[in-house]
Design goal:
Blueprint lengths: L4 E5 L3 H13 L3 E5 L2 H11 L3 E5 L7 H10 L8 E5 L4 H9 L4 E4 L4 H16 L8 E4 L2 E4 L4 E4 L2 E3 L3 H12 L5 E2 H8 L8 H15 L6 E4 L3 E4 L3
Parallel strand pairs: 1-2, 1-3, 3-4, 4-5
Antiparallel strand pairs: 6-7, 7-8, 8-9, 10-12, 11-12
Helix pairs in contact: 2-3, 6-7, 6-8, 7-8
The protein binds calcium ion.
């Protein structure tokens, strides 16, 4: 039993109750809200460990809720998983850019929900970058201070931009980043990065990583992620 507290902001009664039932069975404490404003109020009051946030809400939409929560100092670091319909790719991108940690497309199975939620809670507690500024994921080792990358034990030669992009993805395995988020993360590097050039950089990274490059995944319509272990 985990004891962590989850806030569900979802206007559809049946979905809200299904999620609540599923998570209570997993040992989570649940708070529920049926619209955006009461969801924000509940977040401020109850300080949950994670928020499940529907995008289509009756009062203010989920993106606005996400923006308000992420800008609120007292709750801005609470991870948010958005609940979206299949057709809402642009909303997913906006949500990620507003700071949401992940999204789940409806309809989803309870098992998928629990797995994603656990993954977000875990990575929030367990940062990938160690005290020596090193990241180790799959068979990729990144030394941020030395600007070195080993793939399957072999040193590989990345450009400064490729290095910055890979380090950013590898710092948060499993997280999806939009192209704009990737651009923001590498700004100030040697290259005027555009959305299109992010695609080109990713191709270069994959090629240089060899087999490990398969872990650099395209998330269709949204962006890129490094697969979690
Ligand atoms: Ca809804």
């Amino acid at each position: 039993m985990s004891g962590e507290t989850i806030l569900i902001i979802e206007d559809e009664h049946d979905i809200r109750e299904l999620i609540s039932y599923t998570l209570e069975n997993e040992g989570y404490n649940i708070h529920k809200a049926a619209d955006g404003l009461s969801g924000i109020a509940s977040a401020r009051k109850n300080k949950p460990d994670l928020i499940l946030l529907d995008i289509m809400l009756p009062d203010i939409d989920g993106l606005e809720v996400c923006r308000k929560i992420k800008r609120d100092e007292s709750i801005g670091d609470v991870p948010i998983i958005m609940l979206t319909a299949k057709s809402e790719d642009s909303d997913v991108i906006s949500g990620l850019e507003l700071g949401a940690e992940d999204y789940i497309t409806k309809p989803f199975s309870p098992r998928v929900l629990v797995a994603r939620l656990r993954a977000v809670l875990r990575r929030n507690m367990d940062p990938q970058v160690d005290d020596n500024q090193r990241i180790s994921v799959h068979d990729i080792q990144i030394d941020i201070k030395k600007h070195e990358v080993l793939s399957e034990g072999e040193t590989i030669d990345l450009s400064a931009t490729e290095f910055a992009i890979l380090s950013h993805l590898a710092s948060n395995p499993g997280w999806v980043f939009s192209r704009n988020q990737i651009i923001d993360a590498v700004r100030g590097q040697d290259y005027p990065v555009t959305e299109r050039s992010v695609d080109v950089q990713i191709l270069g990274i994959r090629k240089k990583l060899g087999t490990q490059g398969l872990y650099v995944e395209t998330v269709r319509g949204v962006g890129y992620r490094l697969k979690s272990e």
